[in-house]
Amino acid sequence: MSYKANDPSLKSWVSVPENSDFPIQNLPYGIFSTKEKSPRAGVAIGDHILDLTEIQSAQLLNDLELPDRVFDRPVLNDFMDLGKEVTVPVRERIAELLNRDNQELQGNDQLREKALIPQAEATMHLPIRVGDYTDFYSSESHATNVGTMFRDPENALLPNWKHIPVGYHGRASSIVISGTPLHRPKGQTIEPDAKQPDFGPSKRVDFELEMAFITCGGNKLGDSISTKEAEKYIFGFTIFNDWSARDIQKWEYVPLGPFLAKNFGSSMSPWIVTYEALEPFKVAGPKQDPEVLPYLKFEGNYHFDVELEVAIAPKESTEKVVTHSNFKHMYWNVAQQLAHHTINGCNINTGDVYASGTISGPKEGAFGSMLEIAWKGTKPVKMSDGTERKFINDHDTVIMRGHGLKNGVRIGFGEVKTEILPAK
Amino acid sequence: MSYKANDPSLKSWVSVPENSDFPIQNLPYGIFSTKEKSPRAGVAIGDHILDLTEIQSAQLLNDLELPDRVFDRPVLNDFMDLGKEVTVPVRERIAELLNRDNQELQGNDQLREKALIPQAEATMHLPIRVGDYTDFYSSESHATNVGTMFRDPENALLPNWKHIPVGYHGRASSIVISGTPLHRPKGQTIEPDAKQPDFGPSKRVDFELEMAFITCGGNKLGDSISTKEAEKYIFGFTIFNDWSARDIQKWEYVPLGPFLAKNFGSSMSPWIVTYEALEPFKVAGPKQDPEVLPYLKFEGNYHFDVELEVAIAPKESTEKVVTHSNFKHMYWNVAQQLAHHTINGCNINTGDVYASGTISGPKEGAFGSMLEIAWKGTKPVKMSDGTERKFINDHDTVIMRGHGLKNGVRIGFGEVKTEILPAK
């Protein structure tokens, strides 16, 4: 599909700094509040937010089949629930309003003043009421690295891995927005060869560099969504830090999977970049061998060329970038993930979150977790202040960023930034 | 704690048939609709439902700090969210109104007529908007049976099992109410020694006999709930059928746990029996050896003597009871489950569901799944129509029931009844 709003030649009358994540071709949705007004929906443009409640009140979004005050809500769910028949034209209309040739908003001093809010004056909020949260495990390099470290380098991937986009259910309640600090979790761990577990703060808190997609609409329980239909249900993407306590996980995860090692918190970037804005960044994925079952076959590209990086900033020190990866380093794509998730009739809903699993590139320097970067603690990473890290220390802040760049257009995600506080 | 509403000598002016699950000492909450009126909250009494919207409108629940029309909602979440300071006195007041000595409702012909609805004329609805759903694995006999069948009879329990109330996250979206048929899931399975998985309808659809508790209120992310505080957060219980596709699970569950084997549907009984109504049925659990970590220690009893049974009715045949178990056959209790769930700071909310895991008693005849009852297919079970079952066939209806019985008072759960339809 091609969208007018993606045209690289478009320019906005709102000033967009060089290297901004938010040119007119992006227009990601978020929920923000200001000192004066409670949380509501907006789109990012340059260093500003366009307040969609003001735009709708001013009758600039008429004829788009929008319910009254649909943006005047603390989450985007009601808007997303309208489906792409509505949300895609809304993005196109916003691009039109922000286009330098358009005077409807640009020429209305009073409205412009009210509707354009500096991001620096806004507080961002979790943009969705999360229904269910699923975490996949879809990067071959990550699964191979973990299998090599903990099992057998010769058989690093488990037998099901190339047949199934392996996934599991995570905790929806503890998904938080960028900027929300998290306490180091306490829990049970066990020393090698010990008979009894210990209890205390995790010693191996780790980030996992992931992307997440968020669904709009859904299927009825019992129905399935094909790979072909999948994109109709994918509203957009965020960067996602799937925090993990490696030592807690190791002891608890057999046989039913990770639980307390994960559910102390997962962090999400505040802006949902639409599926449509990422359209130009679609690329082919790896050849899948062995051949996948028919319900996992697909036509077209569902991988995305989005550069990702992770930095760590110790308390009172500058950040150090510890990895560069890319969302294209996935074996299973989003269409396959959604088709697999629903092949048994599982129903999905607006506001459900699906994280990719740790995105590791094939080479050192592109790994998506400290477990892999510091290779199980054998290769500590030097920070800006000279200290070393095998995992994440108290008061470290982990920052993830991502963007696609093509034809001079940079579609960015902003960042997800989280400080780890000491255990409570 | 003792509650006036639990007094065995109480009798209602509403007729309660012998062996009814719903005497005046129970008063479970549900959501129902009638031909005339949309879903709203009620309590079960005998064969009737007391419409709480009518009772509140008639000013009979004044002075209880209830928000206006709090029962006139399609789910109980807003009511439950008020906390036990409010919900416990409401149950006491309802018991007072239904007491044969009380004339406030009994003596008001017009109101009584409107407020008492025969259950036969009502449709029940899922009573809560489910936040997160967690499934535990807390019955020692079940875990031992599974470990014996699939691993090693000598080491049937995994090393973590007696230290951790093992649990994992399940799918909230596909929790359905009793009476909702479910389609047999399709998915990947693999034959022993095969190199490639097959695809098709599951051949091993199984029930899991569980109880679930539902929380009211919650902790802030980062805080924990102690075993002592746990009961403040447990609103009540239902019977829960955690449907499982054994063949799909076997292939998919390593290393991150069950996913499509479970999320095609989980079935819940319609009435939430309050924690307070179950108070008289508290019993001691088994001695826990090895000693548990301090955060899992508790005082008092948090096991419940609730008799459970499962019946299977093939299409056009009568039901056959295939097992008798009891909720007391748990190793880990509900206070320990909640303390464990939050020890890492994971936040819980009103409307979250926590299933017990399959409840198997220690002996044959008390197992909680077909996997165990038919012992991996080696001991098929005869149905009323003469056919045999190793697992569940298309058009079989599985019915679970439960009740406590003490001092002549029967506190029952009604039933959860689900037909398995052919794969779509």
From TrEMBL, chains A, B:
Its cofactor is Mg(2+); Ca(2+). Residues 25-127 form the Fumarylacetoacetase N-terminal domain. Keywords: Calcium, Hydrolase, Magnesium, Metal-binding, Phenylalanine catabolism, Tyrosine catabolism. Its EC number is 3.7.1.2. Ca(2+) binds at D135, E208, E210, D242. Substrate binds at Y137, R151, Q249, Y253, T358. The active site is at H142. One of its GO terms (biological process) is homogentisate catabolic process. SUPFAM superfamilies: FAH, Fumarylacetoacetate hydrolase, FAH, N-terminal domain. Pathway: Amino-acid degradation; L-phenylalanine degradation; acetoacetate and fumarate from L-phenylalanine: step 6/6. Transmembrane segments: none annotated. Residues 134-403 form the Fumarylacetoacetase-like C-terminal domain. Mg(2+) binds at D242, K262, S266. One of its GO terms (molecular function) is metal ion binding. It is an enzyme of class 3 (hydrolase). The keyword NAD does not apply. Pfam families: FAA_hydrolase, FAA_hydrolase_N. Belongs to the FAH family. This is fumarylacetoacetase. The gene is fahA.
